Amino acid sequence: MAPNTRASRSRVFRAKNKVSSLILTPLINIPLIRRDDNLADIIVASLQDSRITLEDDDILVLAQKIVSKAEGRAINLVTVTPSARAIELAKQTEKDPRVVELMLQESNEVLRTRPGAIIVEHRLGFVCANAGIDHSNVAGAGDSVEEWVLLLPTDPDRSARKMRDEIQVKTGKRIGILIIDSHGRAWRNGTVGIAIGIAGLPGMVDLRGHPDLFGYTLRVTQIGAADELAAAASLMMGQAAEGTPVIHVRGFPYELREAALNELIRPKEQDLFR
User: What domains can you pick out in the chain, each with its CATH number?
Assistant: First the structure.
């Protein structure tokens, strides 16, 4: 029997999670998405066009925009009547009061404001700028681009589960789905891709209690694995006019399991930035 040492347990853990490569491939021929489009059908067709055959434990990463568009989350600002509070905040932040009204509707709490930005606790629980509402690459048929904005999906975890289930039925493969968006961070400049909807892969990987390379027991290490993958996929998607909103991932170094976004949201009592 092998000795039950910290070093031997470390070797077992590393071998289990060791990956020769992590491969991210943008899917081709994804059309401009409209309301009520069947994303599962579109993605399966794109996989075929991209000459990718799904395997068990593959992951598909979707840009939030195509999910929101398919779910009808585009809002024409002509239909929005701003409240008194929205009008006041709009003056302070130099924003369109109609957009500010939507931010208030999408948020639990306004945390910070300055000209050009409103920081909120989104109704989904995370902190973000402008409630995740987007003007770019949003248009309605026959209307000015500037009159339309796009809200985040109502329940991104549910959207991810539905997408995962539909694609698994169509392909017979066990996969994960990640829906991502671009967010800033309180302590760094620049936006990065983060997970906002998860199905079939871990949000967090808890390494506490596992040995490190030298056999010492880790005490605090928890990896935001879904956010790490989201950032990698965001590099492939780009932030402007690249038109590659779905990324196929092979070689994710952790076992797939059921999870939800709340794994990644820090409780308020532990949030030192509020």
Answer: 21-71+153-264 (3.30.1330.100), 74-149 (3.90.1660.10)
